[in-house]
Each structure stands twice: as structure tokens, then as C-alpha cells.
Automatic annotation (TrEMBL):
The keyword Nucleotide-binding does not apply. Its main location: membrane. This is High-affinity branched-chain amino acid transport system permease protein. Signal peptide: none annotated. It holds the Pfam family BPD_transp_2. One of its GO terms (molecular function) is branched-chain amino acid transmembrane transporter activity. It is a multi-pass membrane protein. It comes from Roseobacter litoralis (strain ATCC 49566 / DSM 6996 / JCM 21268 / NBRC 15278 / OCh 149). It comes from the Bacteria. The chain crosses the membrane at residues 34-56, 63-82, 136-159, 220-238, 268-289, 296-329, 349-366. The lineage of its organism: Bacteria, Pseudomonadati, Pseudomonadota, Alphaproteobacteria, Rhodobacterales. InterPro entries: ABC_transp_permease (IPR001851), LivM-like (IPR043428).
Amino acid sequence: MRQVPNIAGVLLLGFFALFPLVYSGGNYDYVMHVLITAFFYAILASSWSMLAGYAGQFSFGHMAFMGIGAYGTALFCHYFYITSEPTGICTEFAFFGNYFVIKNAIGVTSTTLDQDCLAQAVAVWGDSVSVRPMPVLMGIILGTMAGGLSGLLVGLLVLRLRAAYLALFTLGFSEIVKAVISAEIDITRGQAGLELPALFENGVSLMGTTFDKTDKIPPYYIMLGLLVLCLALLAWLARSRFGLFVRALREDQDAAAALGVNTTRYKVYVFTITTAMAAAAGAVQAHYVQIVTPNLMFLLQMSLVVAMAVIGGVENFVAAALGAIFLQILLELLRTSFTIGGVEVDMTVWRLVFFGILLMITLRFFRNGLIAPIIAYFYRSGMAEETVAKRKTGAPAS
């Protein structure tokens, strides 16, 4: 019985791995988009579950770190290029026989060729000079590092705070990040957003099939792979000595400190790791949708991630991830309106009401979530009989 969750997990992973290859519905692109978005939210919900459910550090800044990852790769890919000749008008540095060029910031209204230094140079060069953008993978790595470093700095600053103080500080931090991005129009283009290259701008070949940059299969497997990687890392951490110390922080921080656990250090560790995961998800998602705006960091988005984790089971990161996937799919299914007694019910509005009711029911009657207790039931089944059998085996002969 205790192997049931493991078997179910392997089957579910196999289902998601094979789904794009066997599904052939007319709404293929839409369904794939929903699943890619579901995997994105699953990474956010599972990493937040490790932070809040395992370590007891309730943060409202998770979407801010996701946004830092997204904007980190967006700014890198938008402003930095490699050229074979110097422009003479941009900021540039010699780089292994080429030139590392930094475009000038021209904001959202100044888009003419006489203000974009690289565009001016390209207009003169034509096709005679090579102009190469930065690799997308490097942008994703730098965005992830930016999110993790931001998490480290914020953690060192605020993780001595507890409970509501930490939540309020991270909420304020999130709003500050969003406000700065919105205000720095010259660099970030504000609410107009920054455009990014696709994950595979020039297409990619998989298993003998060539996909262009608009195909859904490559980003689907990239996001699914990132989710599996994050869950594997979280599982390893949870079962290690690190996980033991982190759970000790949740149960009784003062008792853990009295036993010699450096509570601040481990809180900073878990905060940095989970924020880096959020940043990685944001960076990959940004290249998938090919635009980033400050709307990514609205408080409603953070509330959605928290609700997904709570409904799935905040003290189990696998359950939180499954809850995110299930709820994202459910929210899309609830977009379909219907008629009752001649009155049309617009589910594009009421679906969020349904979501809120489900959250309240979960908090009132299922405090460990809807999925986590099912997983725990199978893992704990037979433990009592096994314990009794061990005691009988170890009992002295009469």
C-alpha cells in the first residue's frame, strides 16, 4: 500500500510525458498552453510549500522573485548583443575578436532608428556584419541567479523576523519591485513590457521532427522537465539533514535553536533555494510567452499560488504541485458559461467565486489540503501492524 503514491507518481509522469505525442484534438495548442501554465504554477506552488509548509516561513514575495528572474533574462536578451564589428555609437567592449555591445535605453515612446544605437549601426551595415543576440539559456541562468541572489540578500535582511512581520515585509518588497519596474520606463518599458526571444528562436529538432519557435512541444517538455527537477531537488532536501533542520524550525524555532541549530542560516538557505526556483520558472515562462510586464507580480497572482498550495496540501510539496496543476486545469474548464432557468451564468467571473469557496472549505474542513491526506494515508497504511510485528519479533522469549 505504501508504494501506491510512488506508482501513481510514475504513471502520472508517464502520462504527462506521452500526452503531447498522442493527443490530437482540434484545441491542441490551447490544451498544451494550459498544461505549460499549470507546470509553471506547480513549480511556484511546490517551492512556496517548501518555504511555508516545511520551514514555516510565510512569504508574500514569491512572485516578486519570479518577476526578477523573468526580467533578468528579458533585460539581458533585450540589451546585450555580440557583433563582428564595432558600432562606434553604442557602449561596447572588445570580446575575443568580436564586440560585446550594450544597447542604449530608449523607453517605450522613443523607438525610431535615430535613437536605437544598434539599429542605426545595422541600417548602415546591412547584411555585411554579424549581429548575434545572447543565448536564451544564458539569460535563463542569469535570471535564476538574479532571483536566488535577491532571495539571499532579502533573507539575510529579514529572516530574523517571524510570522506576520515576515509576511508584511515580503509583501512590501513585492510591491516595491513592481513599482520600480513600472517606473523605470526607459529601461523596462513599464506597462508596455519587454519582448523576449522564444525558447528556441530558430526552431529545434526533436526525435527527427523539426519544430519552429511557435510550436508547443519544446516549451512543454522544458517546463515539465524543470518541474521534475525542482521536485527531485526538494525531495532530496526534505529527506536530508537539511530537511530535518528545516522542519524543526517550523515546529519550534526556539527549541531548535536551543539544540544547536543555526536557525537564521537554515532559513536563509531555504529562502534562497526556493526563490531561485521561482526565478527559474519565471525566466522560462517569460521566454515561452515572449513578453514580460509588471502585471506578473500582482498580489492576486501571489494569492493564487498560495491558494493552490493550500488546497493541494501546503505541508507536502508534491501535493502542492498536484494542486496547482489540478486547479489551473479546473479554472480553465470553468470558463464555459451555462444557462439555468433562462439565466446565463458567466463563468469567466463566477469561476473565481467557485475557487474562493473551494479554498474556504479546504481551510475550514481540510486543513492539510485535499491531496496531501490521500498521499499520507497510503504511506501510513500498515505502519501500525508493522510496528506491532517488530515489537513481537524483538520481545524476549517467555
